[in-house]
Amino acid sequence: MNKKRKIGRKKLFGLLFLLLISFVYLNNTSFFAKGQEKAPWLLAHRGLAQTFHMEGITGEMCTAERIYEPEHPFLENTIPSMDAAFQAGADVVELDIQPTKDGTFAVFHDWTLDCRTNGKGVTREYTLEELKQLDIGYGYTADQGKSYPFRGKGVGMMPSLDEVLTHFPDKEFLIHVKSNDPHEGEQLAGFLAKLPSSRLSQLTVYGGDEPIRALQERMPELRVMSKATLKSCLIPYIAVGWTGYVPSACSHTQLQIPEKIGPWLWGWPHRFQERMEAADTRVIVVGGDGSDFSSGFDSPEDIKRLPAGYSGGIWTNRIDRIAPLFR
């Protein structure tokens, strides 16, 4: 009798295990997900910008000295480059901001001026008017300093954040805070609080944990992202997402998912995308493994690495090459 009971229990446990596996599979397969016919939306990193080779690059290197031979006349983080990106087919443009000495925000990537411009020193130690006197194309070279094709062409082209938002009143932007200073988040909250809710819905801010936390506390209605918000969503999701449960930390935010991390997420890509859309969260896939969130999908060969039918956001440094593949 005991032997029969043991056999019966083994069969029962085996059946329950089979049912659990079937549930996990059916609950997370993308086969039944909707929306796979939608085209993905495209995010142009820094607008339409000069790109550079990434071999051996570190955070201290001057990327303006590593550009490829220019194929277009645009410089990153300028109004013409953003206009060109939107004209090419970008749905969202990413831009970088630096606080200025006179209490506003300049749209510029670097902590210092020495790499790209004819200025010297820390960007935030200058007023906006002083920054506008600089030539932001001064340092670009594709031949190790033999020629500088953009010198003299970038004078006065560093815009303020206010100028960008005014020039593009109905376009979507991803704003990058380039520090981990909470006061910068407080300052940005003061600036953004003047905008109507309809305009705020078109903006997302990401950056260091501290400024994003300060910004989120003051403006909970604003979509934000940092490494901290990313972890607070994805770590519990990886633990329990197989059930279909979406943690509250995944609501009304943005997730920049490295392409090599995506397959580890329950329901990736379509069921995962479906769940995040239901939570009012945007998903953008970036290139690589997460070590460099600037890596994008910049060629037709890169696009082939995306899952079939992917309909979320795509991060690209070459919107001019990628948009025609989807438009």
Q: Quick gist of this model?
A:
It comes from Brevibacillus ruminantium. The protein has 327 residues and is of the alpha/beta class.
Number of helices: 11
| Proportion of residues in helical segments | 25-40%
In the CATH classification, which architecture applies? Alpha-Beta Barrel
Average pLDDT works out at: 92
Would you report the number of β strands?
9
The CATH H-level superfamily is Phosphatidylinositol (PI) phosphodiesterase
Q: Sheet bearing the most strands, described?
A: 9 strands, mixed
Estimate the global geometry from the Cα principal axes. elongated
| Terminal Cα span | 70 Å
List the domain count as a whole number.
Answer: 1
Write the H/E string, N to C.
Answer: HEHEEHHEHHEHEHEHEHEH
Approximately how much beta-strand content do the residues carry? 5-15%
Structural class designation: alpha/beta
**Poorly predicted segments:** none
Could you say what the CATH topology is called?
A: TIM Barrel
Give me the Rg, rounded.
23 Å
Q: Any idea of the CATH class?
A: Alpha Beta
